[in-house]
Amino acid sequence: MIEYRTPYYLAIGLLGLLIWSLDFWKVFYRPQLHFSIRMSSVKSKDWLRLLQFVLGVTSWLFLSFALMGPRKPLKFAPDSVEVNDIFFVVDVSRSMLADDLPPNRLEVAKAKIRDFIKLRPTDRIGIVMFSEKVFTLLPLTTDAGVIDQVIDDINVGNLGGGTNIGDALGLAVARAVDTETKNKVIILLTDGVNNIGNMSPIQAAEMAQKYSIKVYTIGIGTDDSARIPVNNGVFGTRYQVIPGGSIDIKTLEKISELTGGKTYVAKSEESLKEILDDIQNLEKTKIHSKGRIVYDEIYYSYLLYGVVLLFLVECFRRFRVKEYL
To answer: How many domains does the chain have?
Structure first.
């Protein structure tokens, strides 16, 4: 699709064509008699004069089209986008291997986190995982390839056996505070109760509140008893039954209340998807500034064609075929 920056300039080109045509056919010139040895040969070639006129008109049409400023829109380029900083704080304690959300809670969480991130290509994503210890698995980044690879590394087994929600949330807050982004969000996903650490979950939430960092909390797991694998013995994988409904909902609700977020409970893969979709809608990225369209300016070639063709026609008129009346 072609757009025109100055379509009204077409009148200038057509006016030039009219003036040139009147000059070409000598409309306002008084007849004059010239004697030349070439006179008879020129008059016998009316077709050559007609060809010159057609080429001249073509050149003026090229120039008229160029004056209209034709251009093709290539793409929309926003001047600036308001980017969100989103930290996922993920529980990797052994209970996250429970199979009440098949194949287990952690694998379901990883799959849904990956789906969530795919819908936010302009946001910066960071990941903190925790058990007894806390660890920044991924600093904030927009690199989709790196994010996808790092999600595979969210695993159980290297950070001890406790559930250190307070320190994990505090670490995410500290990471978020160091950025200049206005909208900062933490999504905390756990299936347990804080039982270790230097900072309590409420203290971490108060710190998030101080810096206007919103925290969404998600408790994952069913109310029924679930099994976690213990080891692969001679007789195959052995399981340990853990009690259901062990999520500290009251603390999660207090965290969200203090920071302006929401608390959810995911008892199935589908409910976790719906929860993250809800957060997705609540934290939409907004483009505030006006954008610009990148154009391919195509008038240059038509301007060049018109100028060159008109120059050749005029040279042919003046020097190669002399005009006589």
So the answer is: 2
